[in-house]
Structure formats: C-alpha cells, structure tokens
C-alpha cells in the first residue's frame, strides 16, 4: 500500500541520515591520514619522552641512532585507528545525540546534550580501540625490539597475557581520557566555532581553528592520563601494578614535578593542530554539503 511504501521510504531516509555521520567521520579521518604519517616521528618523540623522561634533544638522538627503518615501527595501529576512530566517534556521537532528547527531556539542558553524547561515544571508543593503542605502545618501545621483533610476535604475546593484562591493559585511564576528551570536544565545538565565525572568517577556516583550539585545550588538560597510559602499556610482563600504583610510581619518577610530567606537551599541541583541525574542517564541510 501507499502508506507502507511511504513508511519504508521514511525509514530508509532516516537510516541514510544516521549513516552519513559515520561516513563523514570516517572520510574526514581518512583524509587526515597523510598528516598522521608526516607527524608520526613527532608522536614517537613524544612517546619516548613519556616513557624515558628525556628531553626532546635526547629523544630525537635516540630515534636517529635507531635509524629510519625503525622510525616508523608501530605506525600501522594509529593509521587504522585514525580512520576507524573518526567513523565511530562522530557517528556514534550523532546517533546518541538523536536519541538523548527522547529520554532526557526536561532533565538535561539541550546545550549539554552534545557533551553528554560525546561522553558516551568516548567510552565506546575506549572499548574498541584500547587493544590498538596497546599494540602501538608495545611496538614503539625500543626495549621490546629484541624479544618482540614483529607485529605477529606482539599479538601472540598479548594474547597469552590474557585480556585484562594483555590487550586491555590501562583500560580505565583510557576510558576516562577518551570519555572526558570527547565530551569536551563535542561540548565546545559548536560554541567555539560560532565565536570564531563571528570574527568574519570563512566556515572552513572557522571549523579548522575551532578544532585546533579545542583539541589543544583537551590534549593539555588530559596529557597526564596519556603519559600514564603510555607507561602502563609500553611494557609486557614483569611486575604488573594497578592504576593507582602506576600513577604513584610515575609521579615519583618525575620528581613530583608538573613540568617534567608535561614533557612533550608542546609536541602534542602541534600534532593536535594538524590532525584535529583538519578532521573538524573536513567533517563540518561534508555535513553542510549534505545538509
């Protein structure tokens, strides 16, 4: 009947609207893959600073001694993560955002809904991508090169460790970092973009600048959690400690100094400026074209 056909068309239309946010998120992240490749040495330098508590000069010298072949060891997981991360993060946040008003009417302010949806998307993101981050951190730690020389050897060793100590090591700090980071990003994205656009900039430039500013703020705020995760995940086997014990050990190793804890923070800003600025600009442009 016409009514049934109309209902089917409406359902298909709604499905396509939901699918677009996943598609646009994945596309924007895929297009930012090239900058990820370019800045990967920067990321690896930051990682070495987080693990070994060294200066930029010493971290770069260490990578130089290891040679160009090992420079990109561990690049595969972040490349896969970048594309899948954007697909899941933007798509799931949009899906949750569409569902929240139905269940939270008169309870939560409409302005807070994007942040709440971002929080939920961040938790799911942590569940999906913690294993990727674990593999990446093991591969980037030069101390694992001799006994875990290949990706296959790393995967087999982590499987033998069990889920909690293997692939999902440091899940709690990752979940906290991703949930709060996504909440801040999506909560601030709209207001910051509007404020920047009021300065007379083009929509593309406004999106790029807003993505850069927000990711800079988020990265710096949550940087200590990233340092904790890197230190918890870089090692395989040995004396396994919990989150609180690892944090206490990390804080002590940094001489209880925020300056030492934030080593590499400036490079995180550089990386965020490139990747999240581009991702935000491309995503917003696709959304406006399809809107």
From TrEMBL:
Keyword set, alphabetical order: Membrane, Mitochondrion, Mitochondrion inner membrane, Repeat, Transmembrane, Transmembrane helix, Transport
Classification via Pfam families: Mito_carr
GO cellular component, one term: mitochondrial inner membrane
UniProt cross-references to InterPro entries, sorted A to Z: MCP_dom_sf, MCP_transmembrane, Mito_NAD+_Carrier
Main location: mitochondrion
Per-repeat ranges for Solcar: 20-99, 109-195, 202-289
Compartments, record wording: Mitochondrion inner membrane
Statement: the UniProt record of this protein carries the keyword Cell inner membrane: no
Transmembrane segments: 22-43
SUPFAM superfamilies given in the database record: Mitochondrial carrier
Gene Ontology MF terms in the entry: NAD transmembrane transporter activity
Family, as annotated: Belongs to the mitochondrial carrier (TC 2.A.29) family.
Protein name: Solute carrier family 25 member 53
Lineage: Eukaryota, Metazoa, Chordata, Craniata, Vertebrata
Chain's gene name: SLC25A53
